[in-house]
User: Fold GTPase Der from Lyngbya aestuarii BL J.
Amino acid sequence: MNRLSETQDSIVHDQPGITRDRTYRYAYWQDREFSVVDTGGLVFDDDTEFLPLIREQVMVALAEATVAIFVVDGQTGLTGGDEAIAGWLREHSVPVLLAVNKCESPTAGLIQSMQFWELGLGNPFPLSSIHGSGTGELLDELIKYIPPADELEESEEIRVAIVGRPNVGKSSLLNAFLGENRAIVSPISGTTRDAIDTVVERNGKTYRLVDTAGIRRKKNVEYGAEFFGINRAFKAIRRANIVLLIIDAIDRVTEQDLKLANRILEEGRACVIVVNKWDTIEKDTYTILEYEREVKARLYFMDWAKTIFVSAITGQRVEKIIDLVDQAVAEHQRRVSTAVINEVIEEAVRWHSPPTTRQGKQGKIYYGTQVSSQPPTMVLFVNDPKRFNENYRRYMESQFRQQLGFLGTPIRLIWRGKPAREVERNTANRATKV
Ligand code: GDP
Assistant:
């Protein structure tokens, strides 16, 4: 886990108050970005302690995964436990890469890993998490399953996921929206699952409503509604550019909504919060304001998302949702010049200089630049990332928000260490080119 995500300063969104059952870390290799999900040790035929819980967590992780890495111990050799897990993995439709860990010596490693061919999971990859040897080969194979970011960015369609708890009105909203617009139902190529998208054209733009099968056909008994629902929603979030998070005006923001919101943030998707069933609420002049304040307080970690109050039944404001979608998508895709980024940084530093450690060492930001969009991601080159505490990082993010807006989209700041000499050289190079 550490090896895979070390390739960059891993962006871990640390949100107190939001419990999570699995650990997610961002990582990248070459031009591919992905997140790595860590699960506990998997043991079958033993129901003591947390083992059943861990099995369930692994199930959930697999259900949402694009590819799985099965880690075995090259020094211990093949065990009955490995065989049990392999048998079970073969029943899932997720591709599996077999990592044979603890193979410190390349030659001995090859021999150690041979025996794992028996598992029937294809080529074993000998590697050493401690040394880092062999992980490159594994990652090369891994990224074959991960689409390039450009491919996602260049698509002209706007992919919209509609997510929310059962009965919040997702299908009613979908119907209200489709009632007025021409829609084509299209199965997704290359998936064996029953995911169905709905494609809608409007004002010359194409919107792909992601996996509407999960919305149209309901209550899957096989897996239990909860299990099936949230994983399906997680997958839809991953395939989308923007997510409509539907909340029930009667129930208000629930724990499930927080989980979905958290995932939207982790995946870096744009978002509009849609409070549905607004017709059922008794209102006076302040109701909307009060509601909005409450939603923002509960979803404080996505206070950048706009909230709209609608009714699928009366149709109130349903058509306005799409305007917010367009705005949020534009912000999600927005690129800001390096000059502007550095103005924001300079201004921010002028108001509030970076912290100084007890040893008297002060953090210094050399410069920043936007490295990608969807979501807007800025790298700040600094003397030492450790000198910038959580408070200062939050301050800087709020300055970016204040100065640049980015309403409707998460943004990411990556703090990267860089020796001063290298920065001078880079700056000199750039000057020459100019
Ligand atoms: P889904 O499970 O999220 O797709 O929810 P549905 O669209 O099936 O709606 C669940 C229930 O809520 C149905 O009985 C709907 O008629 C009702 N409902 C949906 N939207 C609204 C709304 O805006 N106002 C009211 N009063 N009821 C709604």
Notes: The pocket of guanosine-5'-diphosphate is lined by residues 164, 166-172, 215, 218, 276-277, 279-280, 311-313 (CB under 6 Å). The two ends are 42 Å apart (CA to CA). The chain has a mean pLDDT of 82. The CA atoms of residues 289 and 295 lie 10 Å apart.
